[in-house]
Design brief:
Blueprint: H1 3-11, E1 16-22, H2 28-42, E2 49-55, H3 67-75, H4 89-94, E3 97-100, H5 103-113, E4 122-125, H6 145-165
Parallel strand pairs: 1-2, 1-3, 3-4
Length: 166
Amino acid sequence: MSALVQEREVMGDPKRSVLFVCLGNICRSPIAEAIYCKLLDDRGISHKWVVDSAATSTYEIGSRPDYRGLACMKRHGLSSHHIARQVTKRDFETFEFIFGMDESNMKELSRKAKIAPQSHAKLALLGSYDPQRQHIIHDPYHGEDADFESVFEQCQRCCTAFLDSL
């Protein structure tokens, strides 16, 4: 569990919260997390939110985001100091929104939510907010720099549309 979530719980602060989830937590979800944090900063409301990302798998726990994702974020003026972690039962009890990137993520999130007795998280595909109706955010891990750029652009559209919907 992130320090931000722990801080929120200790302080009893009624902040909104969102968790972005992908397979390894080194490509799509850290990109979405960085984009969302920037959107919140730009709107002057970052103090009202807890934002994090996690993985459905254990493959990359402890790793930094993929170097191509970091380069893509840098080209857009963003950075990430995120360290990959796996989604926990506690995440379902503390986060208001949990967004998966594809159907495989959603299947695993739905399975894990069932074992979280106090789960109140709203689970959805982040792509369900895409104005271009591209519901799946494809994993760029085995792709090129252009695939990371596509993920960035789609996450930008989806995160903006989600925030605008609130």
